[in-house]
Amino acid sequence: MEDIIQGFTVALNSSNLLYCFFGVTMGTALGMLPGIGAMAAVSLLMPLTFYLPPTTAIIMLAGVYYGTEYGGSTSSILLNLPGTPSNAITCIDGYAMAKKGRPGAALFIAAVGSFVGGTTGILMLMLLSPLVVAVALAFGPAEYFAMMLIGLIAAGGVTQGSPVKGLAMVVLGLVFGTMGFDINSGIIRFNLGTVHLYDGINIVILAMGLFGIPEMIVSINSPKGDLLSKKISLRSMLPTRDEMKKSVMPIFRGTGIGSIVGPLPGTGPALAAFLSYAIEKRVARDPEAFGKGAIQGVAAPETANNAAAQTAFVPTLTMGIPGSGTMALMLGVLFAHGITPGPTLMTQHADLFWGVVASFWIGNVLLLVLNIPMIGVWVRILQIPYKFLYPLIICLICIGVYSVNNNVYDIILVWVVGAVGYLLRYLDFEPAPVLIGFVLGPLIEENLRRALLLSRGSVFELFERPISGTLLVIAIALVLWIFWSESRRRSGSVQTASESAANS
Amino acid sequence: MQGWNIKDVAGGLVIGGFGLAFLIGSFQYEFGEISRIGPGVFPMLVGLVAVVLGAMIVKSAYGKPERLPRVPIRALVAVLAAILGFAGSIQWLGVIPAVAIAVPVASLGDRTVRPLSTIMLTTILALGIWLIFSVALGLPIQAFKRPF
Fewer C-beta within 10 Å: chain A N or C terminus? Predict the structure, then answer.
């Protein structure tokens, strides 16, 4: 207990507080710029921390990290441009809410949900670290494979239209994910003969091309192209009581999912966000509202992704195992300061550990304080006529994409992806599941390979292990349920139902 | 009702097409054995699933004829041309000319645009973007490049 108090003392020291504030502000600002996500933001600001004491360095960079999750939701809701991949799912209902004239409410709920998710995640970190670590250790490749399979299938159901189309998008993402360097075999796949695709399609390019470009083409010249031409009162910017009531359970559930998924190495805020959206849609009383501006569709994923981002620090700090590339960067910072994270970190560097944990609390409060008043500013920005806004967005996309590698080829690539993305959108396909498939594809392949390696080729063993067996059965049940409800939806006739049942 | 929903037929074909491409392409990589799956296995499986899903979508397109929606040609061309313009200019001319080209081209996509507002917008955006990305964030992007 006294460790915690000491932690707050460390975190509240004026220099740490200042750097925390700087970190979360920069994180929010950078997270909002499409094309710059958590990893880019942390790497951009990392050099600033080399001459700081280690506690301060981590406090600042952590602030940048979870700050980007806050900022990313802003551009997702206002512009349908996911600031970070985990915000792609927020685009769906968040942007729909903006078009309906309720962007302020969406931003508010996103901020509140992010706060709740982040702070609860910290509580998990503080109280349950050993337990969480034990669970994480029980997850082997077979379990990861099964869990990700569920995530992928659930992602298919996330779209408004037919789940078959949603699944098709997931599979498209999987297929794009195979392009590039294969970590398991060391060869390069599907690079279409060009050296620029040695690493496959960059996720920033994919996101911009699938979300940003088609959205613009569709929105220019549309009669509703000028969003919110009405005057905005303060009350209309905040959620109604009904909206707030509806958000409570999704926030609660999102926190749970984020806190479970976050500490698992190899998963991250994106998976947490998608899973919680899918679950929300399943348990909601009005699932048809999803995709058209359901507040639950904003509350749940935003909470989950912040909870996951926060709890991702658990394996990093307690075991020295980075759950993601960004966490690896954090580890690198610690190493650069001569600190080796691991089980001994909590005891040998208690002030660092608890100081960082306490700063998470403070950082989340700062973010809430920063973001809520800004809602008015963002909503004003939306009132700019679209014909002035979208050239700016085009430039932002081009610069964002160019800044990844300083390579013109990337801009050409985003052009190609944008054209394909528009074609898909024209044909009534939704882009969000592609990102899920794209991110999870390499991971699921790697885990499948490892699982089969460990079981010496026995697929049955994947079912015999208790956790993965259960998850796999759930996955299969999900697939069957999707096809069954799809056939029922199509027509009530017995013939069609039995026809589809025979096919699946 | 007879007839095909052309949109869904096209959609299914696109998905199936991608799937087939990757499925066939996967054969140039090794498959290995079940205990050590090679790089070709996953793309093959996923490509196959894509082909199946594409076929399902095409099949479901029967019996629901629907007309193809309008394509916003002007916006489509403007956006795509602007991006290409940006790509071409930034390499040889720097970021400010790139913005100066991309913004007017993009603005043409909107039917109600006027020259004066476009010029103002271009100037503001060119300077603003340069200030934020090159100066404030320190990204290695040059304002002007001499093409020779």
Answer: N
| Contact at CB, B106 and A449, closer than 8 angstroms | no
B76 lies within 8 A of chain A by CB: yes
Chain B positions in Cβ-Cβ contact with residue A148 (cut-off 8 Å): none
Residue A184: how many CB atoms within 10 A of its CB? Answer: 18
Tokens standing for A275? 């899973």
pTM of the complete model beyond 0.90 = no
Lowest mean pLDDT among A82-96, A160-174, A380-394, A427-441: A380-394
Integer Cα distance of B49 and A190 in angstroms: 18
| pLDDT tier at B96, thresholds 50, 70, 90 | confident
Is the pLDDT at A410 greater than 70, yes or no? yes
Q: Taking a contact as any Cβ pair under 8 Å apart, which residues of chain A between 318 and 357 contact chain B?
A: none
Widest pairwise Cα distance in chain A:
72
Nearest-Cα distance to chain B for A308, in Å, is 28
Q: Which of residues 190-249 of A touch B (CB under 8 A)?
A: 190, 213, 216-218, 220-221, 225
Alpha-carbon distance values, A154 to A133, A370, B29, B51, B86 (Å)? 26, 34, 30, 20, 38
Q: Token pair of A130, please?
A: 């050993």
Nearest of A449, A495, A412, A446 to residue A201 by alpha carbon: A412
**Rounded to an integer, what distance in angstroms lies between the CA atom of residue A404 and that of residue A453?**
35
Q: A300 with A277: CB under 8 angstroms?
A: yes
Query: Would the pLDDT of A499 be above 60?
Result: no
Task: Please indicate whether, in this complex, the C-beta atoms of A190 and B107 are within 8 angstroms of each other.
Answer: no
